[in-house]
Amino acid sequence: MNARAALFDLYGDHLRTRGGRASVAALVRLLSPLDIAAPAVRTAISRMVRQGWLDPVRLPQGPGYAVTPKCERRLDEAAARVYRVGGTRWTGRWHMLVLEPVRDRARRERLRADLSFLGYAPLTETTWIGPHPSPELDALRVPAHRFDAVFEGDPRELVARAWDLDGIARAYEDWLASAVDLVGSLPGGAPDHLVFGVRSRLVHGWRNFLFRDPGLPADLLPPGWPGDKARAFFEQEAARLLPAAAAFVDHNLDGAP
Fold first, then answer.
1. Which of 75, 92, 161, 192 is most deeply buried (CB count within 10 A of its CB)?
2. With bands split at pLDDT 50, 70 and 90, how would you rate the model's confidence at 23?
3. Same domain, 173 and 215
4. What's the rounded Cα separation, in Å, for the pair 19 and 42?
5. Residue pLDDT, tens place only, 133-176
6. Are residues 34 and 104 in the same domain?
7. C-alpha span between 57 and 24 (Å, rounded)
8. 231 inside domain
9. pTM for the whole thing?
10. Structural domain count of the chain
11. Are residues 101 and 67 in the same domain?
């Protein structure tokens, strides 16, 4: 896990509900169980400030960083999908985007990554579909014409064309096997910092599916979809490990050594 990804996970999973801010010293302490060194934390913070995810703030404990409105929206969107908050029922209609040309390659690649994160998939280079509209599209200022559409045909054929369901299914199976081993590595009565480290790795691995799985409705997925079993394990273990992980966060945010 790199420092930037770990910071996104930390702010999203713990700091968002604790004011969305922390001192640099606290951030260094909190990422220490993940074997991320202080220089890497500071470098990642600087990059996130340049990208508009964090703003510098002065805290009683010293210099710190707070999430920006842009970051809040992204963290809330991710949390809603990670923990299935406020799930919506599929209407049988697709949200379609017809992108305007983007000449700059770096911006074009960033746009593709953002749309994949929001649950869209390309039918062509400029036409993307998703099972529902994302509230983040306006904030991202996606240069596209938008349509609410009905597919005239078998929607499973459309899904198979747009998404690699076999690949996503294998990824869920692989993740579940590694997650069982990860959680099983915790000794009984493990100290809070070890629990925090294991839970952070568990959540980080699960968050990666935000870029792969669009959250398709159940009736468009094959029987015995492995994502269901994987999610059940994640939700059970993330909840079980949360009290000790949260205690570690609170202890370090208070400025304890």
1. 75
2. very high
3. yes
4. 20
5. 887 787 777 788 999 999 998 888 899 899 999 999 999 999 99
6. no
7. 10
8. yes
9. 0.82
10. 3
11. no
DSSP 152: S
Judge if 241 and 203 occupy the same domain: yes
Read off the tokens for 104. 């700059």
Instruction: State phi, psi for 167 to the nearest 5 degrees.
Output: -65, -40
Phi and psi at residue 150, in whole multiples of 5°?
-115, 130
Answer for the pair 60, 76: CB distance below 8 angstroms, yes or no: no
Residue % of the chain over a pLDDT of 90: 60
Does any domain span residue 113? yes
Residue 250 lies in a domain: no
Q: Which residues are paired to 22 by β-bridges?
A: 65
The structure tokens 């960083």 sit at 65
The helix (run of H) or strand (run of E) holding residue 30 is helix 24-31
Q: How far apart are CA 174 and CA 177, in angstroms?
A: 5
Question: Which pLDDT value is given to residue 86?
Answer: 46
**pLDDT greater than 70 at residue 254:** no
Min mean pLDDT across 84-88, 122-126, 170-174 is at 84-88
* Rounded Cα gap, residues 102 and 142, in angstroms: 10
Range of 57's domain? 3-71
Token digits of residue 247:
């205690």
141 & 179 share domain? no
Residue 88 lies in a domain: no
Name which of 163, 159, 160 is nearest 171 in CA terms. Answer: 163
Q: How many whole angstroms separate alpha carbon 81 and alpha carbon 207?
A: 9
Q: How far apart are CA 229 and CA 69, in angstroms?
A: 34
pLDDT on residue 114: 86
